[in-house]
Description:
- This protein starts with a helix and ends with a strand.
- It is built from 8 helices and 21 strands.
- The longest helix is centred in the N-terminal third of the chain and has 11 residues, at 4-14.
- Helix 1 (4-14) packs parallel to helix 7 and helix 2 (30-40) packs parallel to helix 4 (108-118).
- The radius of gyration is 24 Å and the shape is elongated.
- It has helices spanning 4-14, 30-40, 46-52, 108-118, 123-127, 167-177, 185-194, 347-356; strands spanning 60-66, 77-80, 85-88, 94-100, 130-136, 139-144, 149-154, 179-182, 198-199, 204-205, 224-229, 242-243, 263-269, 278-285, 293-300, 314-315, 322-329, 340-341, 359-365, 384-389, 395-400.
- By secondary structure, it is of the alpha+beta class.
Amino acid sequence: MSRVKELLDELQIREKEIFTQKVNKSGLSAKDITEVGKELGIKFPASYKEYLRTYQIPTTKVFICFCGDTYTNSFDITFSRTENKYIDSDADEIVIELNWINYDTSSKEAFVKSFIEKNEGTMAWAKSGFFLLGEFRGYQVYLDSKQDIVYSIYHEDLLESEDYDDPKAARECIEEHAHELCDNFEQFLKVICSGKPFDEDEHVFYGDELAEEKPAENQADLSSWLIKIGEASATPIKNQDKIGGFPTYQPEEIPVADPYGGHFLMEIYNHGFADPEIICWQLYCMEMSAASITHILEIRKDAPLYDDSSKLISKRMGLNEYPLFLELYDSKKLDETVSRIGGKVPKSAKNAFKRKKITYLGTITEKLVPNKELNIYHYNDNGIIAFGFDDNGKFYAEAYV
């Protein structure tokens, strides 16, 4: 049974300054919600349906508390309830105002009207399943009604959509640029109603019993390995894990190179990770940066060797050629800040890997290569490339910071 009404009652008791008047009961029935869902082309999650049937909650300002890395470390101020203003903070948690957006539940007609008004300009997003729940400090909060997941996305990132009026492009934009804020709508409601510090990365509340953290799920019960780097090589490195230079093998299709992609970045060999017919995987990226992995090519047995003099493939600029080595390591002692095979899924990649159903394999950090030559997000020390396998067994890699 959902705790929706219990949470809303708790909020009204805790925030008497906000709810100075009694909140009326919702005028919507289960049948009404089904009908407005059909009219808007949205199938609401069960907890949100219950929410709509409970009260007529107005759009209002509420205070929420974060204690994770994504926002706690991004904002250096916190809202002081006693001083009624934002003040400097270096604490492990922050309080911020959320403009909690709600729709008129007094009747079917009122709900549809308010829904269209408050999602004005982003109805393509609503048609793809995403509708607005709130806003805080430049970030907008959306409920993915198809998966019952709550996302936050910086308002400028909404403009990254290839077609602002296309529902498919809207969903692709969210998947690429948004942060998975809460597991579901009920958890988001608890963030608002309980006032408890919420870890926006691990999706747990401070003070609640934490689930046991499990090690990363590796392929084929692999052991953990450190990834180490050798000296920059003046001669081409062949048939070995490496970063920079030219690939050992020529792929079936040569990536088209431009400033935004198609430049050879690295070769990762198949050390029993996948189908033994696969020799290695080649990663290609932007001309001057590894911030965007644009091509991941699977090289299988009988692939021809690549002739460096052919100039068919472009090198990543500003990057020397380095050999990579694997060193067996005790997973219990594995430092999670180093480049490795195994270990735990990095926090910055965890939400995306979960959402895209990627089985984690390993991580390469900005710090691995001397002089920040990888250039992951403007030489950021925390930049990483995390990799693994998707549901179809295809190699996956993406840069994060």
